[in-house]
Structure formats: C-alpha cells, structure tokens
Design brief:
By secondary structure, this protein is α+β, with helices and mostly antiparallel strands. The protein has a domain at 107-168. The chain contains five helices and twelve strands. Strands 2-3-1-10 form a four-stranded antiparallel beta sheet. Strand 2 (47-49) and strand 3 (56-64) form a beta hairpin. It is globular and about 60 Å long.
C-alpha cells in the first residue's frame, strides 16, 4: 500500500521500507477538544498531551504490521541497497524512506516507578542509592555503566522521574553508517537514518515496538470507534490559502 500516514493504522507499510516492528504501538496526533479527539477518547484509546505542540493530544493504537519482515531483522546494508535500486529503476522523484540501524546502546527499559526493584531485574543494584538531586532542575545524567549496561537518570524539578536502561549490542551497526552513506548518497535524492529501538529514540515516537501479549491486552481494552458521532463541524474546510485570503469548500 502506498501513501504516508494512512496505511499505518491498518498495519500496512507505506512506501518501500520494512515495517518498523511486528507488534507496534502507533501514535497519532489530534487537535485537542475537537470531535475527533472526543470520539477516539470515548473508544478508550490511551491519550496524553503532546510533548512538542500546544493544544495537541497523542493517541496510542495497537497494530500488527506486515507482511514484510520488521526492520530489526533486515541489515542496514540491505535496506540501503533496496533504496538505491528503487531510486534507479522505478522512482521518478525522491524516494521517501528511513533506514534503520542497530544502535550500540539500545534502550531496553524505561522505568518510572519502583526504580530499585525494576532495575534489579536487569543489573546488580545493591550499591545504587537513588534519590533527589537538589542541584539538578531539568537534566539527565549517566550514573552507572558496566560492560553490558548503561543507566541514564532523568530529573525534573530536582526529582528523579525516570531511569532509562541501555544494553550494549555487540552486533550493532553504528560502525557501518559512514560506509552506507558514502555508497548510497551518490545515487539517491534523500536518505534518513534512525537507530532501531523498541523503546524509541525520543519521546512519543510515531511507532514503538511492543510484545504480542501487550498488543493483545491493548486491543482488548479498546472498543470500535463510533464514527456516527463524528459531527459538530460546520462543514467548511480549508482548501488553499494565498496571502491572507483562504478559499474553503463544503
């Protein structure tokens, strides 16, 4: 299925890239206090305020992507070669595509409560003393690292609010990035790269991986959206704008 955002909600892959994940939490942004915001909320989909935009909320939808293999099972080189091939043999314009690579320190956990208890399932926390930091307002600090794990402690208003757990991946692809770019850039018009992580490279990513169990739990917790309640508009929508004047259509 071609297109941008539209194919992602039914779980299909837009463009030529591999699905980001198999079982996925798909996020969509909606203007706050609109009919669309109301009916999606009534269906029980998780909702939170957008970290980046005012008057915007973010909904989470559980989806099962496919049928192609998820990007985590496809090397950065295979993705780059396919992009170059499509750009040369088929596309008459820039091919929109994000190439994912295995990061050196992927995030494996994001802990917001019961820090010591949860961390103990990943590393030996017997020597850690987690508490407040009066000198830190909004900051993050790397407090612990061993051969396999790295912890990033995040503070807000002097209080520890989250611990990110990263685990070293000996099969990472960060060392291939320069070679991939050097080989691909001469034959494509655009190229984006992003570290592949189930927990995301930044807050509220469009897609985040989840287990099959979490996918089914989330699916069972929501109900079908009642689109018959999608009303409250005056039927006037923006068509196009030129200068200070905008045309509308019914």
């Amino acid at each position: 299925m071609k297109g941008g955002t539209t194919p992602k909600l039914p779980g299909r892959t837009p463009g030529i890239g591999n699905p980001t994940f198999d079982f996925t939490i798909r996020r969509t942004r909606v203007q706050e206090d609109t009919p669309l915001d109301r009916i999606i909320s009534e269906a029980g989909y998780p909702r939170e305020r957008d970290h980046y935009s005012d008057n915007t909320v973010v909904f989470e939808h559980p989806i099962h992507q496919g049928p192609a293999a998820p990007a985590e099972y496809v090397s950065v080189w295979e993705q780059a070669v396919r992009l170059a091939w499509i750009a040369r043999e088929w596309a008459d314009n820039a091919v929109s595509n994000t190439i994912y690579f295995r990061p050196k320190w992927p995030k494996i956990a994001e802990i917001k409560e019961d820090f010591l208890y949860e961390l103990s399932s990943y590393i030996d926390t017997s020597f850690l003393r987690i508490g407040y930091s009066k000198d830190v307002i909004d900051d993050q600090r790397e407090i612990y690292q061993d051969d396999d794990h790295k912890l990033i402690f995040k503070y807000k208003e002097g209080k520890l609010v989250q611990v990110d757990v990263h685990k070293f991946d000996p099969n990472h692809e960060e060392g291939d990035i320069e070679a991939v770019l050097s080989a691909t850039i001469p034959v494509v018009k655009s190229l984006s790269l992003l570290p592949h992580s189930h927990h995301g490279a930044y807050p509220q990513m469009p897609e985040q991986g989840c287990s099959e169990e979490e996918y089914r739990e989330r699916l069972a917790a929501v109900k079908k959206v009642d689109w018959s309640n999608f009303n409250g508009s005056d039927g006037m929508d923006e068509k196009y704008c030129q200068g200070s004047s905008c045309q509308t259509w019914r």
